[in-house]
């Protein structure tokens, strides 16, 4: 039998270091779907296993460091990684693992979604993980995409505004996208902060309901746009617009939050 030959892929590869969500709403499945929608190839490396549904998380287990290193090292040796997307890390040793992995990928943009709590409020990391992310991981990131509650945890400002959190966090990272949506205003304000430029605000109409996996969707879409070579400001706008559309078209497969529809219904037809 003749061995089939395949043309080389032209899709940029994004290495995803995230947790597994068995409901399929967030985590690695969200990463994969969002990256497919950006024309990228996702290389998913599992950092943690979770027990969760569309309403909340009830438990998690961080994988052994050696297993995560082995997964990522195998991908890096085989595929040309154009960007890296971080999701749930869950423990300080996983922060250090990511730092070690990124030493093998000099110049590759790293997008950090600092997943510390689930949308339903359940914890996805030990108390010292936020500090480790701020001190050891943010300095090697191209951009981080916390929502306001996560930005407050990272900055150590329980009642801080987005501006106050950004002022503290920009000492650790060059670019920061703090997403809104946690108040009751009619418009959602997403703010992009950079050390060397004025803040930019991207607004969108607030949608009804709550969503499971919106942060994963945004960070993955942004990593995909950067992997495609798009400039940061444009990539942020493209990723935010895409994420809003996935929320507008969201579905309710379970009894909890809505799940973003990251791929069109006819994607596989």
TrEMBL record:
It is an enzyme of class 2 (transferase). GO terms for molecular function: hydroxymethylpyrimidine kinase activity; phosphomethylpyrimidine kinase activity. Coiled coil: none annotated. It holds the Pfam family Phos_pyr_kin. Residues 21-257 form the Pyridoxamine kinase/Phosphomethylpyrimidine kinase domain. Its EC number is 2.7.1.49. Pathway: Cofactor biosynthesis; thiamine diphosphate biosynthesis. Keywords: Kinase, Transferase. This is hydroxymethylpyrimidine kinase. It comes from Azotobacter bryophylli. The lineage of its organism: Bacteria, Pseudomonadati, Pseudomonadota, Gammaproteobacteria, Pseudomonadales.
């Amino acid at each position: 039998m003749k061995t089939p030959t395949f043309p080389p892929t032209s899709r940029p590869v994004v290495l995803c270091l995230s947790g597994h969500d068995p409901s399929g709403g967030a985590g690695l499945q969200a990463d994969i779907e969002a990256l497919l929608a950006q024309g990228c190839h996702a290389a998913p490396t599992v950092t943690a296993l979770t027990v969760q549904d569309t309403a909340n998380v009830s438990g998690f287990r961080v994988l052994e460091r050696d297993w995560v290193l082995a997964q990522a090292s195998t991908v890096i040796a085989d595929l040309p990684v154009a960007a890296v997307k971080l999701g749930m890390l869950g423990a300080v040793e996983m922060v250090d693992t990511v730092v070690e992995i990124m030493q093998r990928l000099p110049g590759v943009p790293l997008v950090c979604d600092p997943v510390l709590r689930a949308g339903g409020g359940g914890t996805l990391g030990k108390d010292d993980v936020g500090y480790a992310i701020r001190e050891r991981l943010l300095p090697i990131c191209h951009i981080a995409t916390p929502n306001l509650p996560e930005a407050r945890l990272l900055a150590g400002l329980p009642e801080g505004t987005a501006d106050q959190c950004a002022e503290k966090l920009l000492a650790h990272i060059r670019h920061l996208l703090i997403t809104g949506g946690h108040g009751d205003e009619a418009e959602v304000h997403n703010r992009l902060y950079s050390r060397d430029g004025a803040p930019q605000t991207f607004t969108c109409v607030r949608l009804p309901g709550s969503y499971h996996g919106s942060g994963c969707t945004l960070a993955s879409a942004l990593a995909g746009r950067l992997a495609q070579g798009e400039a940061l400001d444009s990539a942020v706008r493209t990723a935010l617009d895409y994420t809003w559309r996935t929320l507008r078209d969201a579905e309710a497969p379970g009894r909890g939050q809505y799940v973003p529809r990251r791929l069109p219904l006819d994607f596989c037809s």
